[in-house]
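Illustration 12: Crp/Fnr family transcriptional regulator.
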Amino acid sequence: MKDLINKIQSSIHLSSEAEEYLFSISKEKALPKGEVLIRQGQVVKKTFFVTEGCLRSYCIDETGREHTLQFAIKNWWISDYIAIHSDELATLTVECLTQSKVIEFNTKELDGIHSRFPELESYQRHNLERHLVSLNKRILNQLQLSAPDRYDLFLKQYPDIERHTRNFHIASFLGITQQSLSRIRVEKAKK
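Figure caption equivalent — predicted structure in C-alpha cell form:
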C-alpha cells in the first residue's frame, strides 16, 4: 500500500485521513502466475493497482483470437474500464503473467473518495489524462507505424517485459502474428 501512497504523494499532498480511508477500502493481494482477476463476460466491480509483477488485459474475438489491450507493471492501474463505466459485462479478461502483488479496490468505494477528499480528484484526473494520451498514441502508432517500428517502440516502453510475457502476448498487443514477430526479431538480430 505504501507504493500507492508514495505515488499519490509525489503528485499531491495526501492528508492522513485520506490515507487511512484508502487503507480501509483496499485489500493487498499476492497472486500466483496465471490468476485471472476479471473474466470476459462477468460483472466488473474491482480495479487494481500493481505493486509487483506483470498483468495483462485482453479480449478474445468471435474467431478465438486474442487481442492484448494493456500490460500493467509496477505502479500501473488495470481493470476493464469499459465495463465499469458503461455498466456492461466485462469485455476484457485481466490475468497475472507473473507472480504479482496488487492493491484491490471496489470501484464504487474508490469513486466515492472524491466527495470525501476532493484533493484526490485532481490526481485521478491526471491519471485519466495520462491513460487517454497513452491510448491515443497507441492507436496512432497502430495506424501509422510499420510492425518493426511498433516493436521497437514497444521495447522502449516496456524494456523488461519480454522476460514476463509469451510471444503471442506481444504479437497480439502489436496486432501482428507470432510468425511476423519472429521475422522482425530475426531481422533486428542481423543489424
